[in-house]
């Protein structure tokens, strides 16, 4: 697995370079590389530079040697990803109500598999859940939008699919996708912040996803940003998520936009604020100040290098981004605000899908499932 993962992470690379950098004999490297090529997981791809003599043949990961299925429950989407986390096919989960969505999910996964043909190699399934999950049990502890409490989702799915199944909170999954395939590469400390119908954060600390003792770390949406504010469903008052959810923003729109214009929804609000609409910008100023308040607390606690933004309210929204940056610059300790870069995540609207797929891909690559699969 050492040679395979080195090729996966650094390829295209020559056999001789692998031998030199890993301290192995050229014969050993050649035998192992040829073994993985025989089973379709590595491939040759052109020739490299040479300081003299024959140019070396380069090898790389064969991206379509296997696939994972990624599910983003927040966006009601499922997709097939190849070994390089490229999205090949997407299906939307139909609205089956709060009672029938698990059955609907199983049907969509089966459809994706059937559409992919007889040679399709399913290596794992990753699921991004908008709620708190138990990683060990594969259980959704709570997901309010789906009316779920203590659902053994992994157990339900393994009745139908005999591959590793990984569950994770959606913001954590998105952070994982950024760590493996986005701006989080080679970054030890960063935050992924999802801002949409819900607010949540995925925290990468010292190069590892930090989930906390009960798996619920990063619930930034449930810190108090308005003293004596309205009561949240979590039992707290003035929570960030409650103060900037769609209902709250619709109320602010009606209060501040007096020309009778109908509230345009999150995407419309983003478009209007960036086109100069005064009322929309006032609403977005309100959002930016409350998000900034939450982020200043987070910055002072963990001192991240990056804060990567995602979600319907934050993507393609330079007006909000500038408002957040201004608040953070003015309200945080200068050495911290100078150190942190705030920007949109690289995975953008596919953050949940790529994040969920990353869970399954990482598990496959790191837990010897490649070797087990080949021996089978």
Integer average pLDDT: 92
Helix content: 40-55%
So what's the CATH class of the largest domain? Alpha Beta
Distance between the termini: 16 Å
- Tell me, what's the shape? globular
Total domains: 3
Beta strand count: 16
Main sheet record:
5 strands, mixed
Helix-strand makeup class: alpha/beta
Gyration radius (Cα, Å) is 23 Å
Low-confidence stretches: none
SSE order, one letter for each helix or strand: HEHHEEEEEHEEEEHEHEEEHHHHEHHEHH
Content of β-strand: 15-25%
Looking at the overall shape, the CATH architecture of the largest domain is 2-Layer Sandwich
The CATH homologous superfamily of the largest domain corresponds to ATPase, nucleotide binding domain
Quote the CATH topology of the largest domain: Nucleotidyltransferase, domain 5
Describe the protein's topology.
Layout: H1 2-10, E1 13-14, H2 15-22, H3 26-38, E2 42-47, E3 57-61, E4 67-72, E5 77-82, E6 87-92, H4 97-115, E7 122-129, E8 132-134, E9 139-143, E10 148-151, H5 153-158, E11 165-169, H6 170-181, E12 190-195, E13 199-205, E14 208-210, H7 240-244, H8 246-256, H9 265-274, H10 278-302, E15 306-310, H11 318-331, H12 334-339, E16 341-344, H13 351-366, H14 369-375
Parallel strand pairs: 4-7, 7-11, 12-15, 15-16
Antiparallel strand pairs: 1-3, 2-3, 4-5, 5-6, 8-9, 9-10, 12-13, 13-14
Helix pairs in contact: 2-3, 6-13, 8-10, 9-10, 10-11
Please describe what this structure looks like.
Strand 4 and strand 5 form a beta hairpin. The chain is globular, with a radius of gyration of 23 Å. It has helices at 2-10, 15-22, 26-38, 97-115, 153-158, 170-181, 240-244, 246-256, 265-274, 278-302, 318-331, 334-339, 351-366, 369-375; strands at 13-14, 42-47, 57-61, 67-72, 77-82, 87-92, 122-129, 132-134, 139-143, 148-151, 165-169, 190-195, 199-205, 208-210, 306-310, 341-344. It folds into 3 domains: 1-61, Arc Repressor Mutant, subunit A; 67-174 and 352-372, Nucleotidyltransferase, domain 5; 183-345, Nucleotidyltransferase, domain 5, CATH 3.30.420.40. It is an alpha/beta fold and 376 residues long. The protein contains 14 helices and 16 strands. The strands form 4 sheets. Strands 6-5-4-7-11 form a 5-stranded mixed β-sheet, sandwiched between helices. It has a 5-stranded mixed β-sheet with strand order 14-13-12-15-16. The mean pLDDT is 92. Helix 2 crosses helix 3 and helix 8 packs across helix 10 (278-302).
């Amino acid at each position: 697995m050492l040679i395979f993962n080195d090729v996966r992470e650094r390829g295209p690379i020559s056999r001789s370079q692998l031998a030199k950098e890993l301290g192995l004999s050229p014969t050993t490297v050649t035998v192992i590389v040829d073994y993985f090529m025989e089973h379709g997981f590595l491939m040759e791809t052109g020739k490299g530079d040479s300081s003299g003599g024959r140019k070396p043949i380069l090898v790389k990961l064969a991206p379509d040697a296997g696939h994972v299925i990624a599910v983003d429950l927040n966006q009601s989407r499922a997709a097939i990803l190849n070994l390089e986390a490229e999205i090949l096919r997407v299906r939307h989960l139909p609205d089956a109500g709060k009672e029938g969505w698990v059955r609907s999910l199983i049907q969509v996964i089966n459809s994706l598999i059937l559409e992919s043909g007889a040679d399709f190699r399913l290596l794992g399934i990753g699921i991004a859940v908008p709620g708190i999950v138990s990683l060990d049990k594969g259980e959704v502890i709570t997901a309010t939008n789906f009316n779920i409490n203590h659902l053994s989702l992994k157990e339900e799915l393994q009745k139908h699919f005999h591959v590793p199944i990984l569950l994770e909170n959606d913001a954590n999954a998105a952070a994982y996708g950024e760590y493996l395939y986005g701006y989080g590469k080679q970054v030890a400390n960063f935050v992924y912040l999802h801002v949409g119908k819900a607010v949540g954060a995925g925290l990468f600390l010292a190069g590892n996803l930090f989930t906390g003792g009960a798996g619920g770390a990063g619930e930034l949406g449930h810190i108090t940003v308005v003293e004596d504010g309205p009561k949240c469903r979590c039992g707290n008052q003035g929570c960030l998520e409650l103060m900037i959810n769609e209902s709250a923003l619709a109320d602010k729109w009606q209060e501040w936009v007096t020309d009778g214009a109908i509230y345009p929804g999150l995407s419309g609000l983003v478009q209007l604020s960036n086109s100069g609409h005064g009322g929309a910008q006032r609403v977005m100023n309100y959002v930016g100040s409350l998000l900034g308040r939450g982020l200043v607390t987070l910055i002072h606690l963990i001192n991240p290098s990056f804060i990567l933004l995602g979600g319907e309210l934050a993507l393609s929204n330079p007006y909000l981004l500038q408002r957040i940056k201004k608040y953070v610059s003015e309200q945080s300790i200068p050495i911290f605000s100078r150190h942190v870069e705030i920007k949109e995540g690289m995975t953008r609207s596919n953050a949940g899908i790529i994040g969920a797929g990353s869970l399954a891909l990482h598990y496959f690559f790191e837990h010897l499932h490649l070797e087990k699969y080949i021996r089978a």
